[in-house]
Write a structure and sequence with these properties.
85% of the residues lie in helices and 0% in strands. The chain has 13 helices and no strands. Helix 1 packs across helix 11.
Length: 261
Amino acid sequence: MLDDFLIRAALAGIGLSLATGPLGSFVVWRRMAYFGDATAHAAILGVTLAFATGLPLYLGTILVALAMAATVAGLASRGHAMDAALGVLAHSALAGGLVAASLQPRLRTDLSAFLFGDILAVTRGDLVWVWGGALVVLALILWRWRRLLTATLNEDLAQSAGIDPRRERLVLVVALALVVAVAIKIVGALLIAALLVVPAAAARSLSRTPEAMAAVATVISVLSVVAGLALSLYADTPAGPSIVLAAALVFAVGLPLARRG
């Protein structure tokens, strides 16, 4: 029989995969991987502020992730060079969070869990947040799917169809911030972007339609969670990196299959 903590870890990873599969597809299509990194790094600052102010962890993380997402979206709409802007914001937020954490002795020893994740320590309360947040993000993406897809494929076409690309970009930004907030305790800030990008990238080489890619990315993410937890159990490896490594293996295996197709 599996221990309760392994069942909770699997449930948390599966719940998260419901959101990261379709959302990660948009991240790959829009080349927003670095944006995911910036939002994830900002979440560390949110964790620190939550500890300092007594706010619930997820609330503090969501607020800072949303602030980072809104800042980046604002810079993008004004035509700023996003590579440099994202680099400055991501590293500044991460450095600020680490410096602030160093001033709080109670947080110092726990911060590595938020950097690298600790899916094996997920509680039942965490499961409520993870599944609740993931289902909200999934519902948001399904609701806006056609609009998001049109705005992603061609902004001029979207505008001619009465779709505001900036609004759809904001929807993705909010969804990404929510996913980062609920995922930070599971896979950690340094691995969130990988969990978004790697399954979606693997799915792209195995799919022929956007809908298929989103579905395949979700399946790959779920399988990666199960395989990563199994590797962690039997080889005593860190669970979060093991999950991402499993997804990367699927990506590597799928490359020659894509070339043949």
